[in-house]
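[job 0412] stage=complex_fold ligand=potassium ion status=START
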Amino acid sequence: MRTAYSVETVRAAERELMARLPEGALMQRAAAGLAAVCAGLLTRRRGRVYGARVALLVGPGDNGGDALYAGARLARRGAGVTAVPMDPERLHAGGLAALRAAGGRLAQAVPDRPDLVVDGLLGIGGRGGLRPAAAALAGQIPQGVPVVAVDLPSGIDADTGEVAGPAVTADVTVTFGAYKPGLLIDPGASAAGAVHLVDIGLQLPAPEAEALQHADVARLLPVPTASSDKYRRGVVGILAGSAQYPGAAVLAVAGALRGGAGAVRYAGPAAEAVLARYPETLIGRGRVQAWVAGPGLGEGRAGEVAELLAQDVPVLVDADGLRGLDAGLLRARTAPTLLTPHAGEAAALLGVPRESVEAGRLAAARALAERYGAAVLLKGSTTLVASGRAASGGGRPVRVNPTGTSWLATAGSGDVLSGLAGSLLAAGLSGADAGAVAAYLHGLAGRLVAGAGAPVLAHEVAEALPAAWRDVRTP
Ligand SMILES: NC(=O)C1=CN([C@@H]2O[C@H](COP(=O)(O)OP(=O)(O)OC[C@H]3O[C@@H](n4cnc5c(N)ncnc54)[C@H](OP(=O)(O)O)[C@@H]3O)[C@@H](O)[C@H]2O)[C@@H](O)CC1
Ligand SMILES: [K+]
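[job 0412] stage=complex_fold status=DONE, emitting structure tokens
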């Protein structure tokens, strides 16, 4: 599990630790970790640190200080280190002195053909996109040269991953003390590249966000035992599809069949299409351990969704099922509820413009979970899962899905996801676990289909789900 903490939490932990340590000790720990990653990268690429050309982009705060001290360490190992300041009048004095003492130099522009660029412009003190002086420096980073970001790529918002203007794109980010949510959530996550965490000894409370990894997902997957039969493994009911959208029913069933429930029951007007593709489907209403309600229902079916929500059984509500949801009805439920909106549906549920959801996805997922008393899976280039109980009980971290590919933004992909998550609900997972595991497997399956980069069809994602299961379960 990767856990992430907001800037406010990191700053508080930093203050507490600084008070107990000699001045500058934390920055030395950070700089040592940063220099070690840079040295490793240079050694892998050119055999040794000695003689490497390293350019430091240095901002006015402690992020720049980290870069300068790390540069001094590299210079002592024989690298030629050039620091390029954003503002020569505002430079970390101790860091500059250390770099100079080690033989490093200052320059006004990034030198030609460096072997490595270190982005020490802004860290957790950065606000908004890069201002012109910083953007001009970032613009000098030559194509093809590896970039190591200090703490986070300059220009990304540490708490949200948003990029409000120009920003640095790094190959590697060396972050200190804790992951910040912006390193796990796109577009920040993509800008960060591979993230190395340097332990500087911070004592941290419960995280604000977390990202599951293979082992976490493997632990949550429902795996049949010798005593399992199809009913014990759970039956998932699918209320989906319409004359206009029969394909949504087929795709939701496809996802559900590969989600680990023992059987899939389909209720709706697309039974013929479903059976033609998946003869293993049960048809018509009956006892289920969870319902999926919404994909491709079209208009005027809210009554059927409300009927399911009135039952004491886990329900996943997606797509057309999300229209006009009654928050009071949802809050009164005791069985798990999982809502799976995209940004537009989330905006409608919150009564805010879509842009405000896009601009604050973490906050939107939390607000929805709180308002509707349900687990919420907010789809997007980084899918987020907020736990319903967490929001009301205060403080359970939002799950950030680390798998996925932009090729998954394709028609029907969400139908497969809701069938899959519903199947996991029927197998007994909580709303938040079902959502997080489904997003993880779905993203992995999408990557398997997309390979090095190719269009992905929703039914292919469903077909790749068994391979994603195997991948996750392979130690
Ligand atoms: N936390 C920890 O435990 C540890 C933290 N450490 C390190 O400290 C870093 C935080 O340092 P920090 O607080 O000095 O802030 P930092 O990110 O350097 O930037 C602030 C400066 O940037 C400026 N500025 C702001 N926005 C801007 C923009 N868009 N475009 C351009 N400029 C902008 C802003 O200017 P102002 O707004 O004041 O005019 C201010 O001068 C942290 O990320 C980590 O690297 C480690 O050393 C040890 C352990
Ligand atoms: K940085």
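The first helix runs from residue 7 to 18.
[job 0412] exit 0
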